[in-house]
């Protein structure tokens, strides 16, 4: 029995190695334009391969828009950008019915949501009605205009950017909506030597041209292959322990966290943590998941899924601190 499982893992490993060959190509192509920000580029790939969506948080000017635009060019896919503003309407996102006088009938005008890559810029500047129109499309991968339903093209990846909530004129995203994002990645300023390269490139005004190096067909095939990455039962148990520790910290010798957590991660958190770990293994060209894969993505998957109490806020404890404590306490298989 032992032998068969080894053979299986070996063949999975070979298949994944072959399927993931494009990852290096894609990363190289993106690095022509994106200086540094390796973490963000990696997370974009995890979202793409895991068929999830990404929420990026960071101050303006950190190449968030540029990153997803570059990714769509390198994949030869359609890209659209929606700038969220307080006066935006749901029809501005999904599309609307327009009356055609000549034909005495209504025609459908599709909105910018009909693209492979959609950048929802400053999502927390728009009111809840618009946010929910976008989030329905993210969840169902379909849009209803009038009485017609349209299935969205595959791959479909929404990258929403949000300004830090303490900035003026922002609406915090409701918990149920924020839970739809597979990952929430916080972006920091570039390092000093990276910023020097950014300044040089901009002053030259000569931007490298991004060439399509991967086809949509390859991406769809990779999305299927990711599901075949082997995950041992011990790793599944490790993921569930981390999730359950956010809900019942006292059962994991973390009683001091009980007063700091208002709600833990949902089952969507477990699914996304397992998927993201598989995608991370795939990017590292491995056909099986190891605990390090889980630890590499746990912050991005859980930081927006743990509610913190007023007590935690008063003590300046963030969801990041809570995740760190949990990950350090839970036994690694």
Write the layout of secondary structure elements.
Layout: H1 2-19, H2 22-31, H3 38-49, E1 54-57, H4 64-75, E2 79-83, H5 90-94, E3 95-100, E4 105-110, E5 117-121, H6 128-140, E6 142-145, E7 148-151, E8 157-162, H7 175-178, E9 183-186, H8 192-204, H9 216-227, H10 233-247, E10 261-263, H11 267-283, H12 291-302, E11 307-308, H13 310-314, H14 319-329
Parallel strand pairs: 1-8, 1-9, 2-5, 5-8
Antiparallel strand pairs: 3-4, 6-7, 10-11
Helix pairs in contact: 3-11, 10-11, 11-12, 12-14
Oligomerization: single chain
- The helix content, as a percent range, equals 40-55%
Look at the helices and sheets and give the structural class.
alpha/beta
**Amount of beta strand:** 5-15%
- How many beta-strand runs? 11
Shape: globular
Give the CATH class of the largest domain.
Answer: Alpha Beta
Q: Taking strands numbered 1, 2, ... along the chain, how are they ordered across the largest sheet?
A: 2-5-8-1-9
**Averaged pLDDT:** 84
Organism: Winogradskyella luteola
GO molecular function, one term: ATP binding
Domain ChlI/MoxR AAA lid: 260-326
Domain ATPase AAA-3: 53-183
């Amino acid at each position: 029995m032992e032998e068969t499982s080894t053979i299986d893992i070996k063949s999975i490993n070979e298949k994944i190695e072959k399927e993931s060959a494009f990852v290096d190509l894609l990363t190289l192509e993106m690095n022509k334009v994106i200086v540094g920000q390796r973490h963000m580029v990696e997370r974009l790939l995890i979202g793409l391969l895991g068929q999830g969506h990404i929420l990026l948080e960071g101050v303006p000017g950190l190449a968030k828009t540029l990153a997803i635009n570059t990714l769509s060019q390198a994949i030869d896919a359609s890209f659209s950008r929606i700038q969220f503003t307080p006066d935006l309407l749901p029809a501005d996102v999904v599309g609307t019915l327009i009356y055609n006088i000549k034909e005495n009938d209504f025609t459908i005008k599709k909105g910018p949501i009909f693209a492979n890559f959609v950048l929802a810029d400053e999502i927390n500047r728009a009111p809840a009605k618009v946010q929910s129109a976008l989030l329905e499309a993210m969840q169902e991968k379909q849009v209803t205009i009038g009485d017609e339903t349209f299935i969205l093209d595959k791959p479909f990846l929404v990258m929403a950017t949000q300004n830090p909530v303490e900035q003026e004129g922002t609406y915090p995203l409701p918990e149920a909506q924020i839970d739809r994002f597979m990952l929430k990645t916080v972006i920091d300023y570039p390092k000093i030597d990276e910023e020097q390269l950014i300044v040089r490139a901009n002053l030259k005004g000569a931007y490298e041209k991004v060439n399509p190096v991967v086809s949509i067909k390859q991406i769809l095939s990779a999305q299927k292959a990711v599901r075949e990455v082997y995950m041992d039962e011990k790793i599944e148990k490790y993921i569930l322990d981390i999730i359950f520790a956010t809900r019942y910290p006292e059962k994991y010798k973390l009683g001091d966290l009980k007063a700091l957590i208002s709600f833990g991660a949902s089952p969507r958190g477990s699914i996304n943590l397992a998927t993201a770990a598989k995608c991370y293994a795939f990017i590292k060209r491995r056909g099986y998941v190891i605990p390090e894969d889980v630890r590499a993505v746990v912050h991005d998957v859980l930081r927006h899924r743990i509610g913190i109490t007023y007590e935690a806020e008063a003590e300046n404890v963030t969801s990041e601190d809570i995740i760190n404590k949990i990950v350090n306490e839970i036994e690694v298989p």
